[in-house]
Queue: 4 jobs
Job 1
Amino acid sequence: MTKYQTLLYYCYSTITDAEQFTADHLKFCKSLNLVGRIIVADEGLNGTVSGTVESCQAYMDTLHADPRFAGIDFKVDDVEEPSFVKMHVRYKTEIVHSGLRDPNIINPQQKTGIHLEAKDFLAMKDRDDVVVLDVRSNYEHSVGKFKNAITLDIENFRDFPSKINELAQYKDKKIITYCTGGIKCEKASALLLHEGFSDVYQLHGGIIKYGKEAGGEDFEGKCYVFDNRLTVDVNAVNPVVISTCYNCGTTTAKMINCANPECNEHFTQCDACGEALEGCCSEECKQHPRKRVYDGTGYYVKVPQPVSALKLSRKVTETTNLENAG
């Protein structure tokens, strides 16, 4: 019998005095012995929480009883153990960072793409007049994506607006956006509509809900999630593995964080390379004095870190190489 669950959800709904709500909500979550990560903003909630079945049910019932959050569509996973170690509830300016806070441009409470349920997405996705667009980051779509989906070279969702011009060639098509749970699509589809795309849709509930309702058909690889599971299976119909080991190129679906906390890179790594490099992405990181102990999972509880000189140097090198290539 299932003892624990993990809930994934979001809700765009105006929260008055959101900073006070943040403090109160943290106390409420702790009273239920939940663990997880919730972002609170004036525009709504974005959370993943985990705990006993009873605690999760009490949490869902309480939010649904609040008129502001009555419409939340919780994605519920049965898990063997809680998917987090601690409970964090934080106030931020957006529940998903787009860098666009002008409500005249982005306001999911007023205008977004048409929501498609799983069966409708399945019926539309392979049509010639349809483009399926992944709005997630590189490390997410590298480990799994829909077959034939368009992906963008972005490190964070806040980079999405800068990629709009690359999508201009699809303005005469029907665009269907998708992401993990649907939250990014609310803003991505709103921005596409603002930029003159007329036929815009989004997969309601994202990859996770599609996996539950349509068996995940044609989702290739695994789905990255923002908890200690790192990735989850989605496709029970025609699964394949599309990712390869960052170090040796062997096919693998295992994604980890680099054991060097000043790197903390998301990458796929086979077990053999994980053992040889002790969970690091490179020999350089393996020799780092602050390297964390690798337990085979590649998941580490986040602690505040200084700006990574290693990541910055890699960025500079990549930019220089691109400029030289051009």
Job 2
Amino acid sequence: MTLVQMTPRPADPATRTVVDAMDAPGPQVWDDMTVEVALSVMVSDRSGHLLVYDEDGRCTGLIAQDQLTVVRDSSAYTDQVRLRDILGDNGPFTSPMTTIAEAERTMRHGRLGALPVIDEHGCAVGVLALSH
């Protein structure tokens, strides 16, 4: 009798979910943090983005280092500018059960480099990033 080793076929990309491709959430900060402090957190963590939370512990968005740099370098900048002042509306977000294909379309359409993955309670469980 000869044993045959079977290798499982990769899941169909159309049915794979964000959970299969997301990274750990990474650095998480409160929305009352100043831009300068947020930039320092990014540099010390060697991260290109931060997940931002409100006072209720819900993820309100993701902010990238280049966004913070633009704000800091603007003529309207003061050291009192908080993340909540520049974050804008909540989102976009995705669910862990969203298909990778659907999340990728959302990211490409919105020209997003990363997308927070949040659970039903508004807590970030990961980040989905486009690979270039």
Job 3
Amino acid sequence: MSPLTRRELLGRTAGLAALACLAACADPGAPPDRSGLHPALRTPRPAGAIAFLGAAPAAREALLAARAPDVMVGLGATLAPEAGRMPDFPGEVLLPERTHPDAFVQVEGDDQAECSRRLDDVLADLPGLAVRWRTPVRRDVVAAADSKPLQRNPFGFVEGQTNTADAILLPSGASLVAVRVIRMAHQLWDADPPETQRRVLGRHPDGTWLDGTPPLGTPDFGADPDGATTPLDSHVRTMNPRTPGTPAPRMLRRSWIYEGTPGDDGVVFMAFQNDFSTGFALAQQRLTADALHPYLLAVGGGYFVVPA
């Protein structure tokens, strides 16, 4: 089978252009599950269900009352002006029902079907809110290293963990979160040989770095200044070059796999932070140089405040 060109692939998906913001650096480790922790600091569960909502400002108190250890609520700019509005980024093709919702509700648990039922119950107690889009989600946790879970992304690669947990809370105890719904171009990805895939992501399928460093270790990019081992445009190196004067985006990443209709599957990517400019927005500025860019397409999302 001859490799598909990016133009051919996007032609098959009604001319959608590609954008990248995959969580190739992935989830937080395994912080203790204490009910007083902010939702971003709790250990993520293996399954969930998410709903994007349309809501008037009067719905804020009802949404806040819906929070529980297994229910996270995010408030968009309509309900929390400090969230602001996610700017447009090059190459995205945003679906109205998945873009700039007034709020989102996520339920987490151990079973997708049960999470969907739980989400039904939560939404039933929130009259007057319009469900714009919803989906079941899951995390593909495949192993643990140093007591931290390792997660496989939909392209079949185990992700690393280069999160920060020390720059995600505001003085109020809340957190800012950027949410992106990202479709994945499986045809284009599968047409590439394994060696190309490894060099695009900057890791082996089991999560090992290309220089042999274990998944949770730190590679020595200084010993590879020209990208002979780990290409300079690989996803891991674009997002965090690990060179003096080039900061890593300061955010805590969490990604969830969603599976919709054929051609509509990928990840719901979340990035918790206390400053979009040094977190998510910084990562977005580097995307055009990222070799992973052509394989992904952002179709929705927004900026939110997740209260403590």
Job 4
Amino acid sequence: MIPPLNRQHDAYIQHTIDMKTKPQGALGKLETLAHQLVSILSQGMSRAQLEAEKPAIVQPQMMIFAGDHGIAAEGVSIAPSEVTGQMVANFATGGAAINVLCAQLGWQLSVIDCGILTAPAPELGIVSQRLGHITRPLHIEPALSEAQLDQGLLYGQEAVQTALDSGSNVFALGEMGIGNTTAAAAIFSALSGLTGAETVGRGTGVSAEVVEKKQQLIDQALLLHGDALDDPREVLRRLGGFEICQMVGAMLEIARAQKVILVDGFIATAAAMLACRIEPVSQDYMVFAHCSGEQGHRRMLNELNAEPLLDLNMRLGEGSGAAMALPLCQSALAFYYQMASFESAAVTQVVDTHE
């Protein structure tokens, strides 16, 4: 069971924000973010501890989950499945966008092989949590077996456990997997009742013909799996991927530990939707980092009633959007703890009359 967020300090946190030397609400989303972060990071603390200890971000962890998808054989991506393994090697050697962003912004990066076509060379230092070498095609049969589903959820928990044990309290989950925008769109369709035409976008840049094919494959999968899709675990098993499964397990474990989950783009939000359907209270611990350029992502966020921090028209994946949100989290906590109050600064309180 995931404990609900204890909101005993909410009124105090909001009062602290409101009494800073600014008009109320003048820092916009940064104020909402500060409230959420302080609330999560102060779980289990008394009011005195909250004031004295000033909880901060500790060892932020970026975890990239990689897996290959059987649906990729249908030509739903601009790249063949082999590119998943090639990009994993690129992550391991520091050459990808996410490596640059993590180095720039202070993330600790790890890469998990959840099941790609060819296992990476051991010297690359990739964490091996393989469920197979590729999922089955979701429009023909369930993508994962029941055993793979259970093991994948457990692997996801284990992936974050060491970092949790060492004190990390902010996590971002990225992904790599050719074909995984199709899987994510199928998951979104199953959870929302929308058709493939409403959830499928261009992914990393496919043609209009490929978009139409993806839509048809998703509608075929929804028809094939039918009423089984009423169960979120079955949605994950039948339409998901090895990496999406482990991301769901990781999100549930982070929420269970009452730490912050920075949710990335389209694929990561599909995993978040599943986590929220399995354990609705897990959304209390999620911060939605950005709105992806992928067509269905805004609809996903609306379905969750979630407001993203950023909208940079990014659609890369790899956790790149979540990586970009870390400075905002740091800034939100900095203003909360370091900005003077009207009283401490001897400034006349500003009353905002803006409507």
